[in-house]
Specification:
The complex is a heterodimer.
Chain A (H helix, E strand, L loop, with lengths): L1 H20 L8 E3 L11 E3 H11 L4 H28 L8 H23 L4 H15 L5 H9 L9 H31 L13 E4 L2 H26 L5 H4 L18 H9 L5 E3 L2 E3 L3 H26 L15 H20 L2 H8 L3 H32 L10 E5 L5 E5 L31 E3 L2 E3 L6
Antiparallel strand pairs in A: 1-2, 4-5, 6-7, 8-9
Helix pairs in contact in A: 1-3, 1-8, 3-4, 3-8, 4-7, 4-11, 5-6, 10-12, 12-14, 13-14
Chain B lengths: L2 H5 L21 H27 L4 H25 L6 E4 L7 H19 L3 H18 L1 H5 L38 E4 L12 E5 L20 E5 L11 E3 L4 E3 L6 E3 L5 E4 L11 E3 L5 E3 L19
Antiparallel strand pairs in B: 2-3, 3-4, 5-6, 6-7, 7-8, 9-10
Helix pairs in contact in B: 2-3
Classes of the chains: A mainly alpha, B alpha+beta.
Chain lengths: ~475, ~300
């Protein structure tokens, strides 16, 4: 369901994006602005900036389309992240879905990158500062950094004016094409492997229980497409986003207060802020400060994320197929690791607002920054054991985390009252398990492989039963 | 276990549609249908309204409001339809395990090897030629990267346009004199041949009324008549170090809040910036103009691999 939101916001992005390409001019060429927005009249701006302002003020429905596009991008990345968290915490990535998890993580990275490219191309003061920082991050990579930066920008910053058209072609063609292809593979694998399911209601490893694709899902999901679009439209209509005419055009020696990227880049900005002022100095070479928070940290995180299914299988030794999802409380270690890493990134996200927080709380910037440096170490260390404890407590407590069910009070023929527990979902019949004579059950067609081990008269079913 | 295959049954071809899972979820389908129809009708009106609003070039709120309500109504009606007026289920389907059996796997590998051997066995020379030709193309294909995509960095990271004798000019080309700034104020200056240059941008501050400002041993003559000049490009991530605090004589970078001590060679005293801002040595010429004694003695801006670990 959350994955559907991601898919449909991508469709909204394609539709609104095509509209925007009809009017946007991807060029860093200087032009003098004479248009309907009086405060900018007579200013030298880039053609990209001018066309974005014109798109917002002159083109019919242009502002709506632009704001929809920007909102849909935020929804796109947001729903991908939430979808991924759901899959992670319920173990939906386990065999046979490792590859699809890998594709999913790749899609998330591409979505974040394309979001960054998209909000960069209007060439306004805020996003221009972001491009400047992106250049510094590229430049910080050991061995190849200065080459990467000059080749991408067409020279030392700000380059020869080719960065806007290059970001544009990446944003509207190359990355969407890769996303489109991977999305096809993601959905193709989903169709082939079928959806995972939670325990209960007769769900087993070798069946699929639920609403059929036709007609129930098709009708509902079409409704979902329209609802996702509706949310983007209403946000685009009533909630202003990225009013670049207020920021002004990018001028390399201008900068404004409270320069924050879009939320999905916030952790990166926060990491750049909380990083202590360390660098590595080698004879004749150096590893710059920005490398650690902005290249090494995401590099390690994303690689571990991609490899997670295999890493986990290595530690648990669990290599059999799973189609039944875990409850997060059943897997305390995984859940605690996930929660801890998530908490770390939340703290980094918060750290991207140090200046705003200092202003808002009227405390010194130093206090805010130092607190965040402490928090990004302490919070994950606290979250891990707390999550672990909650999980183990929940899985040892009967009924914890389960859906509450009503008791129906019934009056019997004899005039007395008795309580019947209601069905979990209305209309879903409960399986009533009848006691059976264990000795009469022939287990030979249920299990192959090693004989069940018996200790103290308890049968232990081997893990890899078929 | 037996009731699984008994009562659910899409796989059961002659299953009766009287089975309970074919009933709709709604207790009163007629009423739900009416509600959904009404919702569709609202969306129809809203779409028509959007058409009128677009025709008339209405405000963003009206355009988006009508279109949004249209989509909202359409979507809501579909969801109501899908949830309450379709077979309530649950339905069950078989799921084949994905696991490839050992035999099938071995057979696939064997086929692959056998067919492949016919094509590639004893064709070592052909393979070598393929590899050689491919390798040459592969290398040549990298040429555009370094020949046309952009100039190689070479020395461009080390130099700015500041030279011995460069006038300190504002962005509109006005040369600054020593008398132009009041103590405590600042200006962004450029060499005249790079006005507005992203790397040459330099922040000129008059920290005191008169006298040489000595920010560090060895820089005794760099700050005449109370002036100092530093590169405006932050040594952390390259943002313009734009905020000057008069009282504490500190420069703050608004991007990641690095703080530089202006009277002490712009050493970073807070935040992530790892190195001081490079200082531009100044002098005042006979006509009172502020000029540079030389260019910067180190690369400006953030670090890079070849920079070396100076200061």
């Amino acid at each position: 369901m959350i994955g559907e939101i991601a898919l449909y916001s991508f469709i909204v992005l394609l539709a609104t994006g095509v509209f925007l390409t009809l009017y946007f001019v991807p060029s860093g060429q200087d032009v003098v602005y004479h248009g309907v927005y009086a405060p900018l009249d007579g200013q030298t701006v880039s053609a990209a900036f001018k066309s974005t302002v014109d798109l917002s003020f002159i083109v019919r429905g242009g502002l709506l389309m632009r704001q929809m596009h920007h909102w849909a991008a935020n929804i796109f990345v947001g729903s991908i992240v939430v979808h991924m968290l759901r899959v992670f915490f319920t173990g939906g990535f386990r065999r046979p879905r490792e590859l699809n998890w890998f594709i999913g993580v790749t899609l998330m990275i591409l979505a974040i990158m394309n979001g960054f490219l998209g909000y960069s191309i209007p060439d306004d003061l805020v996003s221009g500062t972001g491009i400047r920082i992106a250049y510094s991050i590229l430049e910080s990579i050991p061995f190849v950094g200065s080459y990467l930066a000059t080749l991408l920008f067409g020279g030392v910053f700000p380059g020869n004016g080719s960065i806007i058209p290059r970001f544009y072609v990446l944003h509207v063609l190359i990355l969407p094409l890769i996303i489109f292809g991977l999305l096809g593979a993601h959905l193709g694998l989903l169709v082939k492997q079928k959806h995972t399911q939670f325990k209960g209601n007769g769900a087993r490893e070798d069946n699929v229980v639920g609403a059929p694709l036709w007609p129930t899902f098709m009708i509902k999901t079409t409704g979902f497409l329209f609802l996702t679009t509706a949310v983007s439209i209403l946000l685009g209509a009533f909630v202003q986003i990225n009013p670049i005419w207020l920021y002004g055009p990018y001028i390399p020696f201008h900068v404004s207060y409270a320069v924050q990227p879009d939320w999905y880049m916030g952790w990166l900005d926060g990491a750049l802020r909380v990083m202590p002022s360390w660098e590595i100095h080698l004879p004749g070479h150096m590893v710059p400060n920005a490398f650690f928070p902005s290249v090494l940290l995401p590099g390690i995180t994303f690689n571990i994320m991609m490899a997670w299914p295999w890493i986990e299988a290595k530690f648990t030794g669990d290599n059999v197929e799973h189609h039944i999802l875990d409850r997060p409380s059943q897997r305390p270690v995984r859940t605690a690791i996930g929660a801890s890493v998530l908490a770390f990134y939340f703290v980094l996200f918060g750290a991207s607002a140090t200046d705003v927080l200092a202003n808002y709380l009227s405390v010194s910037l130093n206090v805010v920054l130092l607190s965040f440096r402490v928090l990004c170490v302490v919070v994950p260390l606290v979250v891990y054991p707390v999550t672990y404890k909650i999980c183990t407590e929940m899985s040892h407590t009967r009924g914890a985390g389960k859906r509450k069910r009503y008791n129906i009070i019934v009056r019997g023929e004899d005039g007395g009252y008795s309580a019947i527990t209601a069905e979990e979902y209305p209309g879903y019949g409960r399986e009533v398990l009848e006691p059976i004579d264990v000795d009469s059950v022939d287990l030979s067609n249920v299990m192959s492989g090693p004989e069940p081990k018996s200790t103290d008269g308890v049968y232990q079913i081997p893990r890899d039963y078929r | 276990m037996s009731n699984h295959h008994g009562h659910d049954g899409t796989k059961d071809a002659n299953v009766s549609t009287d089975a309970p899972q074919f009933e709709v979820l709604a207790k009163n389908p007629r009423r739900v249908e009416k509600a959904a129809a009404l919702t569709f009708f609202v969306s129809l009106l809203a779409f028509a309204g959007f058409g009128a609003a677009f025709w008339q070039n209405a405000d963003n709120e009206i355009l988006g409001g009508t279109l949004g309500v249209g989509f909202l109504g359409f979507g809501a009606a579909m969801v109501i339809w899908g949830k309450y007026l379709t077979p309530r289920g649950p339905f069950e389907e078989e799921r084949a395990l994905m696991e490839v059996t050992r035999d099938a796997h071995d057979k696939l590998v064997a086929d692959f090897v056998v067919r492949g051997r016919v094509a590639f066995g004893r064709r070592g020379f052909l393979g070598a030629m393929l590899a050689a030709s491919g390798a040459v193309f592969g290398i040549v294909a990298l040429f555009p990267l370094v020949r046309s995509l952009g100039p190689l960095p070479k020395k461009s990271f080390y130099q700015t346009k500041w030279r011995r004798g460069s006038y300190l000019s504002t962005v509109d080309g006005r040369r600054l004199r020593a008398a132009d700034l009041l103590p405590g104020s600042l200006a962004t200056v450029f060499p005249e041949d790079d006005l507005g240059g992203a790397l040459s941008q330099t922040v000129l501050i008059r920290v005191q009324e008169s006298g040489n400002v000595v920010t560090m041993p060895g820089r005794e003559s760099w700050g005449p008549e109370g002036y100092v000049a530093y590169s405006k490009v932050c040594t952390h991530a390259g943002c313009p170090v734009g905020l000057y605090e008069q009282l504490t004589k500190q420069l703050l970078c608004p991007c990641h809040q690095s703080l530089f001590e202006v009277t002490k060679g712009a050493i970073p005293i807070f935040g992530p910036a790892p190195r001081p801002l490079p200082q531009l040595p100044l002098y005042v010429d006979g006509s009172g103009y502020l000029r540079a004694q030389s260019g910067y003695d180190e690369p400006v801006g953030p670090g890079f691999w070849e920079r070396g670990g100076t200061t």
